[in-house]
Amino acid sequence: MLRLTFFVLLVYIIVPGLAVTHEDFKTCTQSGFCKRNRDLADKAFATGKSWTSPYTLTPDALKFDSGVLTGVVRKDVVSGEDVELPIVMSFYESGAARVVIDEEKRMAGLIELRHDSKANKKRYDEAWKWATDGELELSESAIFRQDHPGPGYSLMNYGPNDRFSAILHHSPFEVEFQIDGKTHIHLNSRGLLNLEHWRPKGSGEALGEDESTWWEETFAKFTDSKPRGPESVAVDVEFPGYNHVFGIPEHADQISLRETRGGPGNHEEPYRLYNSDVFEYELNSPMSLYGAIPYMQAHRFGSTVGVFWLNAAETWIDIVKEHDSNDKQTSTHWISESGRIDLFIFLGDTPKDIGQAYGKVTGYPQLPPQFAIGYHQCRWNYMSDEDVKTVDATFDKYQIPYDAIWLDIEYTDERKYFTWHPLRFPSPKDMQEQLMESERKLVVLIDPHIKKESGYFVSDELRSKGLAVLNKDNEIYDGSCWPGLSNWIDAFNPATAAWWNTLHKYDRYKGSLSNLFIENDMGEPSVFHGPELTMPRDNIHHGNWEHRDVHNLNGLTIINATFQALLDREANTRPFLLTRSFYSGSQRMTAMWTGDNQAKWEHLAISLPMILTNGIAGFPFAGADVGGFFDDPDVHLLTRWYQAGIWYPFFRAHSHLDTKRREPYLIQEPYRTYIIRALRLRYQLLPAWYTAFHEASINGMPIVRPQYYIFPKDEEGFAIDDQLWLGGTGILAKPVVEDTDSTEVYLAGEEKYYDYFDFTIYSPGKTHSIEAPMEKIPMFIKGGHIIPRRDRPRRSSALMRSDPFTLIVTLTKDGTAEGSLYFDDGESYDYEEGAYIHRQLLFHDRVLSSVDIGARGRQTDKFLKKIENITVERIVLIDPPPELKNTQTVKILEEGSGSEYDAPLAYYEVDEGKADYVVVKKPNMRIGSTWQIKF
Ligand code: NOJ
């Protein structure tokens, strides 16, 4: 095995340039349960109207109490056996609904396991514990009506103003979810509901069924013992009237999901969710990547709806669409290997409503520490503490801002996490202390595989305490990863999390200081010699759950344990973590990135839809390796990647061990200057970014938004995924992702747009061709916005702490504008006690004002005192009313000061095609106070 490990390591490390090895990963046909369910769909389609689903709801068993409807679904099987499937439908105050279907026999443990397995007999029913943010409030006002709208149906009325209803068809069992009496989501309309109930081996064959994929399954020489036999769950979810569906990351694909049953431009395979370390992944593909969020949003003119399939096992999703303009619809087919049917339904009017509803279930993104949204300098690897210090000092020499420098796995002693390489990193504290001087941070990789070596304290403790993942025979599972032979922490076990917590304490994690934060990589889990590069499905986790049941949650449990560890280490410091593997709910704790991309233009281009999709799916703190992980980018690609990377919520440059150094200061002129300008632009707009992060943390809105979020009624924009909006700022970016010097941008709506830099005016409602030479970052401000920024270049975001603000204003046709600013200390939880400001900025009737929209708390006054000297140093009003040509001053009335005072205004007339602008210099209102300026 050592030889094998060495070979795999060698391939992994040394051979970039290969394409994905398809034979390592299953297709649907190679995955027994996926094939069985797809075959069922084909059969239903071929049978046509006479196809009947064998599932019926027993009306007499239905009971309703306080928002919860319980009952039994019966499966009609050839054997005549009574297959009872308890169903629970919950209706929540938030307007969400949930359908859970389990299997009576499995709930009661009345099944037999094969191969002397000790696996849990139940269907996995704990995914909600990890993915959701606690119990939702049940609806008090939901109403149940038996035999309504007629015999054979039951009806639930629920949701805001009773606008939602669920019509339950008894036979066959179907559910229509309606808004104002119109169906928007239809479950089992195609009759593909399927829950493979437990049967002993041979019982299928006795009835003429094909058992060839029911039992042991072998793929690429790995045999899965499948002690419970076939146990998949599936259902079809139809969205009548919808042609666009979004979400279900992670795939390297466009945002508007493609059909998956073949045809031009479509996929042949379903979208797969099975967290995998896919080496050199393919673009425009439905293949699984590192993370899984089984949440889909359907959008059309006037409404948005969504579903969340809460299942952590391997999942495939087929999509077919009907394009006929009278009969538009999208039908989806969700198929998981094991677990329960557990489906949330969200109905609403806008993408925002649905994102908010999903966030109420799985939690909103963490408000990260401010440094986390600055620029991160990473590579595999900075080779010594001296190397780190030199890079740090050279950034300063060239006056390039950055917030964190990263250490990949080579900082450790033989890839033993929680240690330092004794020769290369003899003085980790000195290194961190140097970073502290400019308030920068260090981020180190700590992976969940632990080198198996007696004498290595982490390995000894992991094994002696019984906290590792087990194999099917209940022995500690051995596999290989970066350190060679390794064991894996079982973070599903609360005892593992408690132990992991102790490892992060300063007295155990020697050499770590308070400015050290963590990346947990390889959490899929990545196992070099394992089936599909992960661990066997019949491995056993805490609670005797098989790995197959929990696979997609594995990375989340690790992040969960590390998040808690960092929090316990420094109670009032917001943790920063990065993960590659994720599931619904990971957004509460961490940032993610799109893994090992390549230094190719196509990879730069795909990063935009991938990051947008993550935002749609409630996990917006997303980024991609700037510059490309594998291979060396040329200067054009690298420059364009930085210019695009400043629009990633998580903005980190990273590269493979074999790549050449490419820190921005090493790049030849004039490209270095272009890159530095891009970095400074990111820092200039940090107040706007931080405000967008804050918004995400309270309502789940994406930090960078796709076109259809801003113009939900403009069908032309629904599929656009190469331009993006920064929060609610009205800033539209169109990154150049090809080696060209022009690009096209679609400027929707009815307000004018202005070039961010020179105020060139663009008329709305069409696509414009834009000159974009290498130095140009195409970006626009739509009329009607007020953008807060800070214009003084500093070495790190923390050093901008006391800097004054600049406000940029563009007006609507009606002469109005709006914006907002959220601001706090950027590192602690004091904002929970009111230590922040949240201001609404308004322009109406030629008056610019700042209004308090925050809530007061115990620490509000203290915080306001702390920031009392932070002022607005400049206001730029673009395309001002012409009357201002004759004005030399503006009048300012600031709360508390009692009297009005003046500030000078200068009017700048510019060339045709560009907008005039006025600048108010040093108006000096305090950023935290209420004020008005009369223009
Ligand atoms: C895989 C990660 O995707 C990559 O970012 C990292 O550099 C390597 N593991 C080595 O730790």
Automatic annotation (TrEMBL):
Localization in the cell: Endoplasmic reticulum
Domain of life of the source: Eukaryota
One GO cellular component term noted in the UniProt record for this chain: glucosidase II complex
The keyword Protein transport is assigned to this record: no
Entry annotated with the keyword Hydrolase: yes
A GO MF label: carbohydrate binding
Pfam families: Gal_mutarotas_2 (PF13802), Glyco_hydro_31_2nd (PF01055), Glyco_hydro_31_3rd (PF21365)
Metabolic or biological pathway: Glycan metabolism; N-glycan metabolism
Top enzyme category: hydrolase
Domain annotation Glycoside hydrolase family 31 TIM barrel: ranges: 365-692
Boundaries of every Glycosyl hydrolase family 31 C-terminal domain copy: 700-787
InterPro entries found in the cross-reference section: Gal_mutarotase_sf_dom (IPR011013), GH (IPR017853), Glyco_hydro_31_C (IPR048395), Glyco_hydro_31_N_dom (IPR025887), Glyco_hydro_31_TIM (IPR000322), Glyco_hydro_b (IPR013780)
Signal peptide: 1-19
Keywords: Endoplasmic reticulum, Glycoprotein, Glycosidase, Hydrolase, Signal
Enzyme Commission identifier(s): 3.2.1.20
Domain Glycoside hydrolase family 31 N-terminal intervals: 87-318
Catalytic activity: Hydrolysis of terminal, non-reducing (1->4)-linked alpha-D-glucose residues with release of alpha-D-glucose
Listed GO biological process terms: carbohydrate metabolic process; N-glycan processing
Assigned protein family: Belongs to the glycosyl hydrolase 31 family.
Protein name, as recorded: alpha-glucosidase
Organism expressing this protein natively: Penicillium angulare
